[in-house]
Specification:
Blueprint: H1 2-17, E1 26-33, E2 42-49, E3 59-64, E4 67-72, E5 78-83, E6 86-88, E7 90-93, E8 101-102, E9 106-108, E10 112-119, E11 124-137, E12 142-150, E13 153-158, E14 165-169, E15 175-177, E16 180-182, E17 185-194, E18 204-207, H2 211-222, H3 226-241, E19 245-252, E20 260-265, E21 270-280, E22 301-309
Parallel strand pairs: 2-10, 21-22
Antiparallel strand pairs: 1-10, 2-5, 3-4, 3-7, 6-9, 7-8, 11-17, 11-22, 12-14, 12-20, 13-17, 14-15, 15-16, 18-19, 19-21
Helix pairs in contact: 2-3
């Protein structure tokens, strides 16, 4: 009982210290002797909680004392692992949507069955996809309808969106709704970012003092107009400029469908989408410079930019 209490307190302290969950990652539920087991034989039973998916045949990857195994879950909820009596260290991995679980040395006695609950936590966290704006440039005044499928919550859209946006688009970028004219369509929503550290292997480390020059260079390379660049930089520049260092990466075109899907009638000749993810970092990281995808502005062209500030989860 003392050992069980000690494990709970240690894991709770570890979870709070790292700003994670209040529930412990793992907890001893029971420890009972089983005379049917052989001498020098013991069994761990690990019951997995906190996994939310539709997988009907879950498999857990784990290491025991550094050796890696893979095992199908029984009833999609638990596995049993035979071990020699003594201390064993485990590491559990389900998928990239959940944090890995690391244990301390778990002591098990000969001919005992020890049951542990394992509490997985979702590695996704909410971020605000901010100010995606959509510019529309037909070659002649054109009646346009834009429909969006936003992949998030608490969406805000302007001008008012009822099933779609319907307006007259002009070659200079004016979007006329009745007696009102707008420079672009606006939307934003709360979405979920996965904690994938490998995403930081490609991108840019940008000093705050160099942010404006960096944006001017990369957005010119992408093909954004001076007006589009000014809108982008005046929104994001001051926020990155106050940080000593920033990590910046971009996503382009089809990749942006993870945030929202666009359906535009009549179909444009070119649709160019660029989204920026960024976060303040404490020190330089090694990363491969990202290739900037340029746009084609010939014909009926649609341009969209947006971004999201991450919070040091992905580094």
């Amino acid at each position: 009982m003392k050992n069980q209490l000690l494990i709970i307190l240690l894991v709770l302290f570890s979870s709070l210290a790292y700003g994670k969950e209040l529930l412990p990652d793992y907890m001893l539920e029971s420890s009972e002797k089983d005379e049917s087991l052989q001498e020098n034989e013991a069994v761990f039973k690990f019951i997995f909680n906190g996994i939310w998916d539709d997988n009907k045949a879950r498999t857990i990857e784990f290491s025991m004392n550094g050796k890696i195994y893979s095992k199908k879950m029984v009833n999609n909820t638990y596995v049993e692992i035979k071990a020699r009596p003594g201390k064993h260290i485990f590491q559990f991995f389900y998928d990239s949507y959940h944090y890995e679980i690391f244990t301390d040395s778990l002591l098990i006695k000969t001919q005992y069955r020890d049951v542990y609950s394992i509490q997985f936590q979702n590695s996704e966290y909410p971020v605000e996809v901010e100010k995606p704006v959509i510019y529309i440039y037909p070659e002649v005044p054109t009646e346009v309808e834009v429909k969006m499928n936003i992949k998030g919550e608490n969406a805000f859209m302007y001008p008012e969106y009822i099933d779609s946006w319907k307006f007259t688009a002009h070659p200079n970028g004016d979007l006329v709704f009745g007696d009102k004219s707008y420079n672009y369509l606006f939307w934003e929503s709360t979405q979920y970012q996965r904690n994938i550290s490998t995403e930081t292997q490609v991108g840019f480390v940008v000093e705050g003092k160099n942010v404006v020059a960096f944006f001017e260079e990369k957005l010119t390379e992408a093909g954004l107009s001076s007006t589009e660049q000014a809108d982008f930089i005046t929104y994001w520049g001051s926020r990155l400029q106050v940080n000593a260092l920033n990590f910046v990466r971009f996503e382009f075109n089809e990749s942006c469908n993870q945030y929202a899907e666009l359906a535009i009638t009549p179909k444009p000749d070119n649709v160019y989408r660029i989204y920026m993810s960024w976060e303040s970092i404490d020190s330089f990281i090694n990363c491969k410079p990202q290739a900037i995808v340029p746009m084609n502005r010939k014909g009926f062209t649609v341009v969209e930019w947006g971004g999201q500030e991450l919070t040091n989860h992905s580094l």
